[in-house]
# Entry
Amino acid sequence: MAKSEFLFTSESVTEGHPDKVADQISDAILDAIIAQDKFARVACETLVTTGLAMIAGEITTTAQLDFPVIVRDTIKEIGYNDSSMGFDWETCAVLTSLDRQSPDIAMGVEGRGLTAEQGAGDQGLMFGYASTSTENLMPMPIWYAHRLAERLARVRKDGQLPFLRPDGKTQVTVRYEDGMPKSVHTVVIAAQHDPDVKYEDLKEAIVEEVIKKTIPANLLVDTRFLVNTTGRFVVGGPMADCGITGRKIIVDTYGGRGYHGGGAFSGKDPTKVDRTTSYMLRHVAKNVVAAGLAKRCEVQVAYSIGLPDPLSIMVYTYGTAVIPEDKLLDIIKTTYSFKPAAMIQYLELQRPIFKKTAAYGHFGRTDPDFTWEYISKIDVLREKAGLKGPSPVCTCHPEAAPAKSK
# Structure
């Protein structure tokens, strides 16, 4: 039988990309609020452009904050520290326009505390995904796109490639055979740089110190490297492109593999089901795959505002499940609760942990604060599925015995 082959591509961006600058500011504000008031209601949007950062949205809290300081500290940490870039932490203007949460929305969540009957903060649909493509059970294209973007920031900040500036984008195309990744077909990197670096030196440094130090050599088989293909990327960041919170939803999730409900994450407190349920569904899908119940798993949940119970729950395994999908769905329903309060408590989300999610992906990472990545239900799932012995997947997985378990 002939092999089935295809190419699939995902992209990521660095922490200095204008949309990611906006995401990080929104989540830095969220963290500062939750540190003082874990029951706060936060929907914080940020816009950054030449010489300006503006925060807007709806925030109901008892916390007392200096918003401009949070904004400037975040911009400084990212690396915009020179006015010649058209945007820097010392000289940019900071504007705020904040209101309280709408009382019509608050009716569904306010006054109930963190109880079982706390309603969803909005209607909507959310997805979670996992696959055996990589050890962290993430799709390979987005995983390496994130790691390349992370590496760009690291070699800039540690002085290894001092000519780099904060803005940048990465893109990875993977060749698949019979549904499994085999090699990296193309790597695309756009890296902002100082005006005096020669293109040939820049490209060689990116290939040798970023690409080849990130992607394993066995995957780089006749791989095409495309670096700054216009030849120049000096003007970047908010000076070149207005950045807004929530515009990188595919970068934040699975790089286009599987489905997306459309809701962004950054700047939203845990009562927002766009964020919390997406985290919970990643956890569910990851545990299903880690338990060996399927090689690929996607879970969907939908809500109506003010109601605690989901309207629908769906599981899809792309034909890879070892048990019938209807049985797998029953197992998921009896193992996990998808009520907002239950998910918040289960994942311990009333903590200031969100700023570090706002760059390089919300999923697949091993940070101990990312409780949605814990593999903690393998034995329960396998027992309910009638499977004997250890999982064939989790035994070689670095998170098989997490530091913190539910």
